[in-house]
Amino acid sequence: MKPAFQPGASVTVSNRDIQGHMRTPTYIRGKTGVVERLCGSFRNPETLAYGGDGLPKQPLYRVRFLQSHVWPEYRGPSTDTVDIEIYQHWLEPVS
Amino acid sequence: MPHDHIHGPTIDPERLAYYQRMATAVREILIEKGVLTGAQIEATIKKMEARGPALGARMVARAWVDSDYRIRLLLDGSAAAEELGIPVDGTRLIVVENTEEIHNLVVCTLCSCYPRNVLGLPPDWYKKTAYRARAVKEPRAVLAEFGTVLPNSVTVRVHDSTADMRYLVLPARPAGTEGWAEDKLAALVSRDSMIGVQAAKEPES
């Protein structure tokens, strides 16, 4: 799986309503952030956790989100952020 | 060790007794079936207990006195740990630096991922639902409860360790420590300062 996003790219986290060994927290699904860095490619925990081989490896990114976007009731400064690791198959490009 | 372990969705501390019984049962079955030996389990526990915050503190102190090391640490935390003889066993360590403008805070909202190779076992509060839920949603309130009150001119960056990376905060070097030796500096680097809930200790005047 080749990396599809470069640092600085705007991405939206897929808003899938699925449970299991997902490493995408529900609070961030549907939110838009900016790729901070590519961390490398890793086996997919969604199959790895259930005895699968986790292949093909998925590119993993650190994506930075503005807290005020993630939590509408957020009371801190608008510059505060939360960085989250998200696998490529959860990310959609922002046009 | 990225997510190669088995765990349920969320473990309430109240249910620990249940999981403790479960862990014992699984351990006994593994030994009985010859998958592991008791000696191997004991050796792993010893290895886990040998690691502690002193390792991370050494890295921080080195970064404070050696600006080239600081740059290498921020570029590749794992390689910088290995450079000091601290094994990270393939864990990808990302080091984030506190400055006058930025304060970093580490949490794992999904479970309790923690940079065990450089900090040892996590404190109980790090694993509790309250910290995991609140650190990401109201980090400034959580920081204030740890005595860390930040002005709005400082940006708070929360790092949610959701997958294969582990995070270590490089706290700011306290004022009044100019010319200090590395060992003396390392004593100021608390575990909590490397999680990001507090600053490094101030030198005693």
- CATH architecture annotation name of the largest domain in chain B: Alpha-Beta Complex
Helix content of chain B: 40-55%
Poorly predicted ranges of chain B (pLDDT <50, ≥5 residues)?
A: none
Order of helices and strands of chain B: HHHHHEEHHHHEEHH
Please list the strands of the largest sheet of chain A in the order they lie side by side: 4-3-2-1-5
The ordered H/E elements of chain A are: EEHEHEE
CATH topology of the largest domain in chain B: Nitrile Hydratase, Chain A
Q: Supply Rg of chain B.
A: 18 Å
Largest protein-protein interface: A-B, 29 and 26 residues
Question: What does the largest sheet of chain A look like?
Answer: 5 strands, antiparallel
Structural class designation of chain B: alpha/beta
User: How many extended strands of chain B?
Assistant: 4
Number of helices of chain A: 2
Describe this structure in words.
The complex is a heterodimer of chains A (95) and B (205). Chain A has 95 residues and is mainly beta. Chain A has helices at 45-48, 67-70; strands at residues 10-13, 32-42, 58-66, 81-87, 91-93. In chain A, strands 4-3-2-1-5 form a five-stranded antiparallel sheet. In chain A, 29% of the residues are buried. The model of chain A has no long low-confidence stretch (mean pLDDT 93). Chain B is of the alpha/beta class and 205 residues long. Chain B folds into two domains: 13-49, no CATH class; 51-195, Alpha-Beta Complex (Nitrile Hydratase, Chain A), CATH 3.90.330.10. In chain B, helix 4 crosses helix 5 (77-83). The termini of chain B are far apart. Helices cover 45% and strands 12% of the residues of chain B. In chain B, strands 1-4 form a two-stranded parallel ribbon. A two-stranded parallel sheet of chain B has the order 2-3. The mean pLDDT of chain B is 92. Classes of the chains: A mainly beta (95), B alpha/beta (205). The A-B interface holds A 19, 21, 23-25, 27, 39-40, 42, 45, 48-49, 60, 62, 67, 71, 74-77, 79-87 and B 2-4, 6, 9, 92, 94, 109-110, 136-140, 152, 155-165.
